[in-house]
Amino acid sequence: MGVVIKQSLKATIHIYAGVVIGFLTVVLVFPRIFSPGEIGLLNILMQLSLLVSQFGIMGMPGIITYYFSTFKDAGSNHHGFPVIVLIGTLLGCVLSVAFIFIFRSWLLSKYPNALFEAHFIQLVPLTLASIIYSNLDGYYKGFYNVVLATFLKETLQRVLIVAGTLFVALKLCSFDTYVILYTLAIVIPSVWLAVAIIRDGHMKMQTDWKFVTPSLRNGMLTVGIFNIVTSISSYINFGIDRIMVSSISGLEAGGIYATTILFGTLVSIPSRTVRKITSALMGEYWLANDTEKLYDIYKKSCVTLYIIGCLLFLGIWVNIDNILKLLPPEYAAGKWAIFWGCMTSLTEMIAGAAGPLLSTSKKYKSQTVQTLILLFVILAANWLLIPRLGMTGAALATTIGFFSFNVFRHFYIVYHWKMQPYGKDVAIVTLLALATFTLVYFIPRHFHFLIDTVIRGTLVVVVFGCSVFFLKISTEVNNAVLAVLKKVPVMGKLWR
User: Are residues 252 and 41 in contact, defined by beta-carbon separation less than 8 angstroms?
Assistant: First the structure.
């Protein structure tokens, strides 16, 4: 887990730097510069482009994860694997652009809004950028490098987005022009990542088709097809709530929902980098049939991510009323969407590296079936709950779907590999979280909401964080905390 923690910690720093910038942008800047409808437009352009790109990536991230350890050989330029990645990427880009124009009329009918029709063309560059980034990010992580890609996507992209809003705030450009600047902010990280990979010598156009035996080729095609289905289903499962709220309730409601649900997604952010790096390691361990190391990574990832998830959930929910004061009054409608969004993220955190474990195993096809079942559950729940509960119904539907999905996936892993990652440590963390919430939520409120937020946030860290640390529930958490403390001059002397 050493390389996992090291890479994850560095990447998570970039992620949270981006989160701070994104938070300030979405919560403090966007609602004060743009209308909910304009925010809804930016959201739906992004969500639809991401949805189309799940088909356009052609299953390449899954193929890379599953087969890169087979091709990996610097002396032979990885047996032409970079060429395979490039061909898959170009093919996906062409098909995705064709899809966008073929279904243009249908998409416009689902979102009958003048803003959406005026900026429909932006779906093309947004989709292409998403395809290129996804495939290159998957390829780069095969070299255990997730830091640069994370910085570009999570930090730089958000810096560029907020920089663009300054032009609107200073009345140097219109909203229509800003949409173009917003698109450029999404495109630049993909171009940068491509240049970095070429510069590092990882994208040499040398083929070795003899290495790709019929058996290997058929295996890659099978993995690719299943991963296309899995990718599309997975993204729909994560993004269908935003898409359906905008379609059923309008772009204005979609803008409010996209803003408030952001708080829920904060809880699951650390899992992104952990899953990126563990997928590369697990691919190698499955190849070596080292189930002991696989189980060790899986078990540690579950409890570690659950601890972090609980800490973040507590920090958000004990301050929920203060958080809503940062937004215009109409955004208060998303309060319980935030709660259920946090719950969804928490179910993902406690699942740990279950996803990479399955996707890199010989049972990877089962994940496709499981994801399709999740898709139907979430779609049905959204159709039932959005008309009745609005935004709250959309968030609740996602929670129901992912809770069911993770429970089923857990028992599937236990059945096939006897890997049971949960023990009394999870129960202790849960009790500590509940006790911390009870203590902090009901303390008297300070007259100023910002001071009150700092007080409650500090208490959560002290009560929950210190309890977890001194009970030594997670070695990984303790080591990470000590590594940070030792870099603080005064604290470093105390922990020597």
Answer: no
